[in-house]
Amino acid sequence: MSPITKIGVIGAGQMGSGIAFVAALRAKCSQVLLHDPNPTQLQAGLKHIKAILDKDAGKGRITTADAEEAFGRIRPVGKDGIEEMDKAGVGMVVEAAPEKLELKRSIFSELSKGLASSTILASNTSSISITKIAAATIPAGVAAASEEAKRTAGRVVGLHFFNPVPVMKLVELISALQTTPETLESARQFAIACGKEVTTSQDVPGFVSNALLMPFINEAIMCLDAGTATRDDIDKTLKLGMNHPMGPLQLADFIGLDTCLNIQKVLYEGTGDSKYRPSILLERMVDAGWVGKKGGKGFYEY
Ligand code: 3HC
What we know:
13 helices; 302 residues; globular; 3-hydroxyacyl-CoA dehydrogenase; binds 3-hydroxybutanoyl-coenzyme A; 8-stranded mixed beta sheet; N-(1-d-carboxylethyl)-l-norvaline Dehydrogenase, domain 2; NAD; NAD+ binding; 2 domains; Rossmann fold; alpha/beta
């Protein structure tokens, strides 16, 4: 199995630009093609990457030459992104697009049509079933149990990075029902090359990380709603009592309350278990547009 040296990243938001950063700086991929259909987002993603590289060089963690080289290996690509990735011969594409099943299914269908059959197709989704995404790569009319479908869908894998990607040490690998052992191993090697520790989860709602994290956050919101303790005391309990870097309410704001609610709904609907019922306060805050840090207001004001 040869290491992945050229990759494509779909989506230049917080996660996609973070993934491009670790691929260029840590994995030293010779080419990182960063694609976003929105030119403004693409430029913002590049600016973010440049700022972190400059900060690392400023702190003496890397040399200025390292920072310049890493930035030079990242190539922004616009609407012909998949064609460009095919021309460059990328070994893997990591998708970090918004968390919408139909959008991801359409991206993976296009990726499987436009790229060599050996290209690994990874999704950074935090909650959508990798098995459903993999099924979208099978061309219409091809039976899901055929050898062609097994090859096509077998190269799809979940590669779940954590926010902020440059800082968080973990990547959670998710094996869909169709994922081949070779795909899983290549993805693992890539994550290790990016400087990450790796865990593996089966494709169940929330995988391991969010099946544990979201109910914890949801319970904290229920605790607040029930008046058990104030916002500050809930967060202080976990920060000072358990050494968490952020309390659960601050973390919910950081992740985005809409994202938390979506994931909690995936757990609730995907398992049918009432223990995952989303907090009514969380639902109401999202209804109000108070989605956390990115929106200027959540449990805290920004
Ligand atoms: N991109 C790159 N670097 C960033 C960053 C970003 N978006 N945000 C912070 N950093 C860097 C800072 O530049 C700083 O780097 P330095 O050491 O070179 O100065 C370093 O992180 C520490 O930042 P700060 O000093 O500003 O602040 P803190 O010490 O409070 O750390 C934190 C910030 C790393 C975000 C820390 O509070 C933390 O670990 N919080 C918990 C984060 C967490 O749990 N993430 C997972 C969320 S769940 C998820 O992603 C899964 C999804 O499916 C929901």
